[in-house]
């Protein structure tokens, strides 16, 4: 496996791990109750618990999509939009509940840049390696 492909594979697994950890651990298993509090603040408390689980399941599905490499650029574009969109909403409506408060938006921007690099700048694997 050439060096570029090692980096691409490492990034793919790292990105998938971020989605899996946030979805499964933080939301579905409710190990970080702050996530449900953020959902309650933005979407209302009545359905915050089931919506948080639903968001978590969607994040787990995203992890699987990342690992599958199916329509990779579409996946990356959607991830960038979701990360930036979710984090702007959280920044505007629930900043006090965020782990790093106003710095969360900086980390979201850095993650979006990493996604962009992975999906659009890092050379893709040759078709024979897929």
UniProtKB/TrEMBL annotation:
<feature type="transmembrane region" description="Helical">
    <location>
        <begin position="12"/>
        <end position="32"/>
    </location>
</feature>
<keyword id="KW-1133">Transmembrane helix</keyword>
<protein>
    <submittedName>
        <fullName>DoxX-like protein</fullName>
    </submittedName>
</protein>
<keyword id="KW-0472">Membrane</keyword>
<feature type="transmembrane region" description="Helical">
    <location>
        <begin position="74"/>
        <end position="93"/>
    </location>
</feature>
<dbReference type="Pfam" id="PF13781">
    <property type="entry name" value="DoxX_3"/>
</dbReference>
<feature type="transmembrane region" description="Helical">
    <location>
        <begin position="47"/>
        <end position="67"/>
    </location>
</feature>
<dbReference type="InterPro" id="IPR025695">
    <property type="entry name" value="DoxX-like"/>
</dbReference>
<keyword id="KW-0812">Transmembrane</keyword>
<feature type="transmembrane region" description="Helical">
    <location>
        <begin position="99"/>
        <end position="120"/>
    </location>
</feature>
């Amino acid at each position: 496996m050439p060096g570029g492909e090692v980096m691409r594979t490492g990034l793919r697994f790292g990105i998938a791990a971020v989605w899996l950890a946030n979805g499964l651990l933080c939301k579905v298993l409710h190990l970080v109750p702050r996530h449900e509090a953020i959902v309650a603040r933005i979407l209302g408390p009545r359905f915050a618990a089931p919506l948080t689980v639903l968001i978590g399941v969607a994040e787990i599905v995203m992890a699987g999509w990342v690992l599958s490499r199916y329509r990779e650029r579409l996946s990356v574009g959607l991830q960038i939009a979701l990360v930036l969109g979710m984090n702007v909403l959280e920044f505007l409506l629930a900043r006090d509940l965020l782990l790093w408060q106003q710095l969360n938006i900086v980390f979201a921007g850095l993650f979006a840049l990493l996604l962009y690099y992975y999906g659009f700048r890092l050379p893709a694997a040759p078709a024979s390696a897929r």
